Amino acid sequence: MSATPFTVVLLGGESTGKSQLAQALVTQLGTHHALACALVPEHLRSWCERAQRAPLAHEQAALAHEQGAWIARAQAQPGVQVVVADTSGVMVAAYSEQYFQDEGLWPQALADHAGAADLTLLMG
Hints:
The protein has helices at residues 18-33, 43-51, 60-76, 89-100, 106-116; strands at residues 6-11, 37-40, 82-85, 119-122. Strands 2-3-1-4 form a four-stranded parallel beta sheet, sandwiched between helices. The chain is globular. It is built from five helices and four strands, in the order E-H-E-H-H-E-H-H-E. With 124 residues, it is α/β, with parallel strands linked by helices.
């Protein structure tokens, strides 16, 4: 039976350095400390690039859920010791509240985050 990998989740607004730090952590931990790492990219970013638009209010819950699923898949990879996630559903919940005045995603996003993250780094 293998242990669940230590999971670091980065939170913060756009252009706060989440993606850059996530990649640097994976490189540093893998190269200099010989740890098997998995990088989880930001699902929202890839979704927006594919759709060529920002998501609508009714699309927010699925985006938050999928970010959590990406983290869970990385954690389930055999041999992975550290997962570094470039955000969680918490940021989707924050955007949903900010742009659509919808606070409904918070309970699930916070529960998913608490269940997945061993360390949360807030970027600013």
